[in-house]
Sequence to fold (390 residues):
Amino acid sequence: MKCILMNKNTEVLVAEYDEALAVFTKIEKIKNIEYAPVIINASYNLGEDIRTKLSEWFKDRGIPSWRDDLDLLLIKLELSTPTELLDKALGLSLSDQYWVKPIDSNIKYEDVNFFDHDFGYSEFTNATFSKSNTSSDNISLISPNNMTDGRLKKAWIIDNGVRYLLKSGYKSEVMQPFNEVLASMISKRLGFNYVSYDLDVVNNIVVSKCPCFINSNVELVPAYQILYKNCDKNNAYEDYIKILESHGISDARERIEDMFIVDYLMLNEDRHLNNFGIIRDVNNLKWLGVAPIFDTGQSLNILDYNDDEIILNGDARFFYDVGNFDDIILKINNIGRYDLSKLDGLVDEFNSLLHSYSDITHMTDRRIDKICLLLQSRIDKLKSIIEKQC
Fold:
């Protein structure tokens, strides 16, 4: 299939796309490469053959092969692999404005995008958050749900005109949705820029629910694209800050530090380079600011506990480094600017939240108490660090 990679109504390049292999086989013509995804533009400017990079980028926008219960979802969709979804609905998503337009088509972005147009979601949502292996002819593939990355079950819905992303825990684990809400609670109290998460229940499963934090005029550019062959991996943090500041984001350091404060308090072990970044205006390509804090679900991971000890699982992730959470705090320049007294009462509030859903999650009082004890210990530890440095 010959197609045009579009950024809204701007033609980026013309290419041949093999639907069976789900790869771009040939770049026919470069048109406006500066409007390409940041990583594709960077690859082009480095003189690389962008065909392979383009295929990788396109595939990475879709449902990965490691999605939880993917086999059941594919049965319901009557598909063999998730790559069959990539070019359905023109590759449109709710994370950016890129799409693939058939070469002979006259359609425009405003005619088809999912920011402005409704889409079917009920059947896909039920198929995602259900253990049934029954297929359905009613599941619409004209949907942004074709293009959702990550291993957790997730689905876009529309509620009172707002696009929300629903996301569950991983397999039998139930804490991830609550952790997303906790990150919102912490961020709100400390005055951070964050995506607001709430809870919902679908098919007797507790899921997190957050609004889409971009619109048809801006895109999320993840950090991995910004850093592509553009940093010293041993100094990635400082290099990243310099890159953002060079694009006019003057508060880059403070906003990144805010995110790592949340990660420290929650022992978030999954702050990878794809779940933080910047917001870019797709019309004029201006970098607008650091993306709000989102995707903090893999936190407070207690492996085991007894009366005397809580055994934790997982390490801190800091750009390309994996190590100790205490090392992250050493990177923060002015830790005294954080007033943790604003978190007073947070643990009790979170305790009540966990108990209010225990009939569904089956979390025991003892486990909830241990989780809250761990959270309080993190707050107390950071308070002590701040006091010593100030």
